[in-house]
Structures are given as structure tokens and as C-alpha cells.
Amino acid sequence: MNKVSIRKMSATDWNSVADIYKEGIATGVATFETTVPAFESWDKAHMTSCRFVAESSNIILGWVALSPVSSRCVYGGVAEVSVYISKASRGKGIGKLLLKHLIDASEQEGIWTLQSGVFPTNHGSIKIHKAVGFRMIGSRERVGKLNGQWIDNVLFERRSRLVGVD
């Protein structure tokens, strides 16, 4: 694989980002979503400061973004992670690169806690979250339905050692 770079996601990346999201949806283990939203909806739901793509030879291999977990000011330093890797790029360390970059960027933005809800059958996502310092803090049983089936979520958290420690 050629050199991989991480850069800020732009609106012009949406078609590639949406295609990768669609591939994630198709796995049945990545999200409760069943369709890719319009860019405008996705854009409103995600923080503008912490969204990145991994790219090689002008091809987007994966993306990562943060969503606020609450509009309440006390949770201003807590965000939820979304990370998706193209089908052709899975298992090559792209997710780990994106998450490491996201961690650094989130701390620069004053984020002290990153959280993720992962399907228990999404072994790749569990592995990369653990590899970059997330810890499993529990699970939510039957938290949502996907195609008529109840799905559990394994909860992961990463606390910053730099932000929110005083």
C-alpha cells in the first residue's frame, strides 16, 4: 500500500465517505443505521473540528468523526466516535491510524472523554479501540433493533491524560 495520510474531511469528500459508510452498513455489525443520511443531516450531527479521512493515492480509505453526546454544557468535553474503513482497506491498520489522529485532535479541542458503542460481533472495531487505549466499561443489552433483531452494544471509553485531569 502506498503512503497513507490523514487530513481534515471536507464536504467534497462526502461521496467517498458515504460509500464507505454504506459498506459499513452492509456488514450488519457497524451501526443501527440502514441507509446513509444526506450530507446535511450527517454534517449537523457531527462536530466540524474532529472529522478526518485517511487517504492514499487520492483514494479515501476510511474516515473518523466525533458527535457530541449531549447539548448540556457539562458534557461539552465528551464525544462519541464514529470510525469506518473501506472494505478494501480493512485489516491494514487504517482504523488505528485514524483513531490515534482523532485522539490527538480531540484533546486539542478540549475533549476529555471519547466513547464508542460497538456491536459485540464487530471484532475488528473492538480490537482497534482497545489498541489505542479505549477500555470496555460495560454493555447495554438489547439497546436497539436492526432489521427486527435486538442488538447489544459494548461500551468503550477513553479518558484523556492531558485534558480534564485537574
Shape: globular
Question: Radius of gyration, Cα only, in angstroms?
Answer: 15 Å
Uncertain ranges: none
Please bin the fraction of helical residues. 25-40%
Main-sheet strand order equals 1-2-3-4-5-7-6
User: In terms of quaternary structure, what is this?
Assistant: single chain
Mean pLDDT: 95
- End-to-end CA span: 42 Å
Main β-sheet description: 7 strands, mixed
Instruction: Provide the β-strand percentage band.
Output: 25-35%
What is the H/E order?
Answer: EHHEEEHEHEE
Content-based structural category: alpha+beta
Total strands: 7
Count the helices. How many? 4
Notes on the protein architecture:
The protein has 166 residues and is an alpha+beta fold. The chain is 27% helix and 34% strand. It has a 7-stranded mixed β-sheet. Strand 2 and strand 3 form a beta hairpin. The longest helix is centred in the middle third of the chain and has 15 residues.
Question: What's this entry about, in short?
Answer:
With 166 residues, the chain is of the alpha+beta class.
Layout of helices and strands, plus pairs?
Layout: E1 5-8, H1 14-27, H2 39-45, E2 51-56, E3 59-68, E4 78-85, H3 94-108, E5 113-118, H4 123-131, E6 135-146, E7 149-159
Parallel strand pairs: 4-5
Antiparallel strand pairs: 1-2, 2-3, 3-4, 5-7, 6-7
